[in-house]
Amino acid sequence: MPRLHTDRLYEGELRKIREMLLMMGAKVEEMLSHAMRALIERDTELAERTLYIDRQINRLEMEVDDLCLRVLARRQPVASDLRFVTMALKVVTDLERMGDLGVNICERVVELNEEPPLKPYVEVVNMAEAAQEMLREALDAFVAGDAERAQAVVERDSKVDAYYGAIFRELLTYMMENPRNIFRATRVQSIAKYVERIADHATNVAEMVVFMVRGKDIRHVGKLERRGVSKGETELGRRSPSPPAAADSDASLRDVMSVDRASSGRRS
User: Fold this and answer.
1) How far apart are CA 222 and CA 111, in angstroms?
2) Which 3 state secondary structure label does DSSP give 138?
3) Which end of the chain has less neighbouring CB within 10 Å, N or C?
4) Is the overall model pTM greater than 0.90, yes or no?
5) pLDDT tens for each residue of 51-75
6) DSSP character at residue 239
7) The CA-based dihedral angle spanning residues 67, 96, 132, 86, taken in that order and rounded to the nearest 10 degrees
């Protein structure tokens, strides 16, 4: 639990920052939940109403930024308090970006609802629930000051990545079977990608919780270690590792889109 201060006004300012961050996180969860409901129920009106939640998130971002800067200027925090305030300035950006991604999801849902359904979107909803749970756990770890709980959130990001890979491969088969599926399939793929990015931002929040509690920066640790191994292998004349699967997926999508444009040109 966070340490309390003898200065009640100072403690109140820190508590307010904490509460506003949690409110932002709750708004992001609400956006994602409503967007998935609008997708499943084909409720365009709900998707359009959900867009307005982003305005509340943006307003909270500005208020948190302002309060954090005032605390830094007036209180000159040190040690754990300084880590908390600097973390809040970063977390608020991740939460705001999640809100923007929620807007993107709702816009794609509106487009999909104008077309016949391509398929049941069970996998996308499961993926969104996993990302939403990651955000909830990251925020709970933030409130409790629990670094181990935050570390567990970081490790769960691979589950959401696996969901995205499976969804992409399935959608690719739909697009290859019938070019008329491309418009709807690319919209579903975009929604899945937005959800995957939300999970990435939740991972960022969890990593910053670890920094706040332990004073240890765990960002990019795995990537840096892999890069070091790859560099060592290259120096030994070994074969460099193949590019990540995500790059292959993006290349495959570009190929499908080029086929779609070519077929559209022939039809015109």
Assistant:
1) 38
2) helix
3) C
4) no
5) 999 999 999 999 999 999 999 998 8
6) P
7) -40
The amino acid sitting at 188 is: V
Contacts of 263 by beta carbon, 8 Å cutoff, 6+ apart: 179
**Which of 93, 221, 83 shows the shortest CA–CA distance to 151?**
221
DSSP calls for 200-213: HHHHHHHHHHHHHH
CATH of domain 8-221: 1.20.58.220
Which tokens hold the place of 196? 């995957």
- Whether 21 and 95 have beta carbons less than 8 Å apart is answered as yes
pLDDT at 229: 44
Provide the token pair at 72. Answer: 């830094």
Q: Quick one: DSSP state of residue 145?
A: T
CB contact at 8 A, 105 and 191: yes
**What is the spatial distance between Cα 231 and Cα 39, in angstroms, rounded to a whole number?**
45
Per-residue tokens: 175: 């697009």
Asked if 25 contacts 135 with a C-beta cutoff of 8 angstroms, the reply is yes
State whether the Cα torsion 178-184-186-191 is positive or negative. Answer: negative
Q: What is the pLDDT of residues 136-172, one digit of tens each?
A: 999 989 888 899 999 999 999 999 999 999 999 999 9
Q: What is the mean pLDDT of each run of 10 residues along the chain (268 residues)?
A: 66 91 94 95 95 95 94 86 90 95 96 90 93 93 89 93 94 92 94 96 93 83 53 47 48 51 47
The span from the CA of 126 to the CA of 162, in Å, is 12
Radius of gyration of the CA atoms of the chain, in A: 21
